[in-house]
């Protein structure tokens, strides 16, 4: 088979554009096929501090620092009791990552995709990937462009970065839903004039926990604020028949803290809705194939991890693809370590997410001031420190999150003085 590119990537979101960028840094020829015309709206606007290392490697850190508001922490509010607690990333066990960014994804995703193009990746927007045929000597990808005409491109390697559509895992029925996560619907919109924190705390994400789900408030540099909610299955069942907007308005009425933030706010975007299923593909790879980002797995939106996983997955994928191209060996087995690398970070968060939905993590999240060990571990997780080995990670993996407080010799917050408790849990 003759090839048009070294790699064809389906999807130009953070996973696809970052994979293209990392491959161009290794001088590989890349085609990115993206169904939409960018900029386009996308949910998933809060970044984590440990992604900053990747923004540096991708060459976009300076652009991001100039464009986006700093996010120095995450504030949790318990709606029913009024308890509040803010985690500051400067207190993470591994230092040097004091803030992340809040980004409007329309702008952010376009910036990343344009940057990949500026490095020499060929990007074709408004181009939908259809059939993908894997043969022993290469991959043939069928695409339909903006003029409605279909054509084929050939490459030794194919990357599925199609997000929650999960092109290949869907077709091969590899997606396994996470049975422990009890939420299933997210609704979201954008407001102006939200009563935001002032000063250094302005960029913090605020997460409200309530009986029936949780909500987020994500502030942007231009003054707009993203507000969304994720509902438990039981909650959406009880409110069946309501439109997304009615569902959101109904919920806000029962949430005194969120209502207070929104008292003078104006909604500037239609309320959107989204299925919120958590899933993982049984395999992230096969012969001549890697799945990156949401195309491989989606853990949960609670801890804002999606883009971190997409960007790290892209970095791991590019390394494996580059080596495969050098060796001329595209066998499935050689890509198995890719899945292990990705799963490392995902598993740590999956454990935390499971404890949140199945056990009493809500209470622990709000009672951190009483336990510096728990506080330090949660801060490090919230910062996204899940890919570099650390003692506390192996302790969580072995003992389970709720038990780490009982394990001796655990590190504590770097400076517990700086952990600020606003209102303790009653
Ligand atoms: C309610 C909710 C809140 C979230 N909040 C956060 C958050 O705060 N922070 C965070 O980091 N993550 C968050 N996430 C997760 C985040 O949205 C995703 O993890 C992230 O966008 C994954 O990037 P990706 O590139 O894998 O997929 P995407 O960003 O979805 O990109 C996939 C691209 O593939 C394209 N595509 C799909 N099918 C085809 C096809 N057949 N042909 C060509 N192109 C195709 C799509 O148009 C899309 O542009 C949230 C998710 C949800 C559901």
Q: How would you characterize this protein structure?
A:
The chain has 426 residues and is α+β, with helices and mostly antiparallel strands. Among the domains are: 7-44 and 105-175 and 279-344, FAD/NAD(P)-binding domain (3-Layer(bba) Sandwich), CATH 3.50.50; 183-275, D-Amino Acid Oxidase, Chain A, domain 2, CATH 3.30.9.100. The chain has 13 helices and 22 strands. The protein has helices at 14-25, 52-58, 61-67, 105-118, 167-171, 233-238, 244-253, 256-261, 306-327, 336-358, 361-366, 372-382, 391-399; strands at residues 7-10, 30-33, 69-71, 73-78, 84-88, 100-102, 122-124, 128-135, 138-144, 150-155, 157-160, 175-177, 183-192, 205-210, 213-219, 225-232, 266-267, 272-275, 279-281, 285-286, 289-291, 297-298. The strands form five sheets. Strands 4, 5, 13, 14, 15, 16, 17 and 18 form an eight-stranded mixed sheet that branches. Strand 15 and strand 16 (225-232) form a beta hairpin. Helix 1 (14-25) runs parallel beside helix 4 (105-118) and helix 9 runs antiparallel to helix 10. It is globular, with a radius of gyration of 22 Å. The termini are far apart. The relative contact order is 0.18. Flavin-adenine dinucleotide (FAD) is lined by residues 10-16, 33-36, 42-46, 128-129, 161-165, 167, 186, 228, 230, 274, 276, 293-295, 301, 304-308, 310.
């Amino acid at each position: 088979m003759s090839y048009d590119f070294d790699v064809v990537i389906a999807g130009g979101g953070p996973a696809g554009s970052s994979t293209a960028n990392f491959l161009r840094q290794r001088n590989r020829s890349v085609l990115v096929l993206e169904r939409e015309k960018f900029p386009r709206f996308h949910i998933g606007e809060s970044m984590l501090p440990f992604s900053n290392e990747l923004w540096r490697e991708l060459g976009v850190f300076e652009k991001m620092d100039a464009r986006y508001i700093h996010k120095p922490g995450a504030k949790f509010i318990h709606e029913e009791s009024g308890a509040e607690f803010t985690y500051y990333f400067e207190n993470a066990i591994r230092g040097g990552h004091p803030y992340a960014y809040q980004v409007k994804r329309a702008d952010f995703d376009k910036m990343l995709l344009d940057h990949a193009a500026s490095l020499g990746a060929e990007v074709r927007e408004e181009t939908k990937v259809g059939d993908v045929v894997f043969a022993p000597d290469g991959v043939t990808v069928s695409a339909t462009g903006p003029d409605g005409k279909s054509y084929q491109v050939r490459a030794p390697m194919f990357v599925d970065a199609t997000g929650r559509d999960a092109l290949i895992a869907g077709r091969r029925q590899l997606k396994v839903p996470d049975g422990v996560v009890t939420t299933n619907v997210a609704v979201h919109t954008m407001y102006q004039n939200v009563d935001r924190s002032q000063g250094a705390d302005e960029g913090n994400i605020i997460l409200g926990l309530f009986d029936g789900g949780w909500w987020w408030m994500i502030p942007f540099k231009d003054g707009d604020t993203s507000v969304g909610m994720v509902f438990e299955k039981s909650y959406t069942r009880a409110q069946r028949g309501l439109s997304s907007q009615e569902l959101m308005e109904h919920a806000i009425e029962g949430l005194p803290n969120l209502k207070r933030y929104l008292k003078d706010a104006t909604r500037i975007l239609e309320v959107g809705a989204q299925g919120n299923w958590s899933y993982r593909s049984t395999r992230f790879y096969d012969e001549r194939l890697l799945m990156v980002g949401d195309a491989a797995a989606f853990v949960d939106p609670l801890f804002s991890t999606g883009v971190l996983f997409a960007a790290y997955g892209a970095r791991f994928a590019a390394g494996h693809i580059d080596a495969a191209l050098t060796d001329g060996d595209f066998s499935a087995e050689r890509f198995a370590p890719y899945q292990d690398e990705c799963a490392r970070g995902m598993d740590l968060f999956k454990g935390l997410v499971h404890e949140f939905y199945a056990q009493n993590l809500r209470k622990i999240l709000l009672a951190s001031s009483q336990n510096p060990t728990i506080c330090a571990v949660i801060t490090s997780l919230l910062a996204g420190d899940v890919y570099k080995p650390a003692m506390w990670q192996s302790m969580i993996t072995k003992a389970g999150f709720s038990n780490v407080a009982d394990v001796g010799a655990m590190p504590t917050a770097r400076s517990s003085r700086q952990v600020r408790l606003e209102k303790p849990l009653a």
